[in-house]
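DM from R.C. (forwarded with permission)

"hey, sorry to bug you on a friday — could you get me a structure for this? deadline for the figure draft is monday and I only need the backbone to look sensible"
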Amino acid sequence: MIRRAEEAQEAAARHHGIHPTDFRCMGYLLARNEPASPREIIAYLGLTSGAGTALLDRLEKAGFVRRERHPKDRRSVLIVLDEVAAAEPLRLHRRISREYEAALADLSDDNLHAIALYLERVQRLSQAMNTVLYPQTGADTPDP
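My reply, with the result:
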């Protein structure tokens, strides 16, 4: 189910000429409704530092984001979404979000809580099973 949702978002992004990770990043910044540090973005998306830098470079080059000095820490930067330049991808993101919201609109809070509880338990179980089945050997790849 989650894989199908991700595939749909990836297809939508690619159809509009956007890398799926770029699309997810813009959606994250849109939902935050405030600038984010590169570290926050990278952590949210589960990227390596190098992949995160490449992502932000692509988005900046496309004009979708800009880097600004952090007002309280001049040594760091914040990533600011340019909603005018990113209007088309954001329109697509908003449409997808509305569709998901509509699909859940008739569910009660109790129903949504049960679904969230189920998904959290499956996630914890999956992480535990991966740890047991594929213990890290100090490298970035699982044991054979």
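R.C.: lifesaver. DSSP finds six helices and two strands in the chain.
me: no worries. Helices lie at 2-15, 20-32, 38-45, 49-62, 87-104, 109-133.
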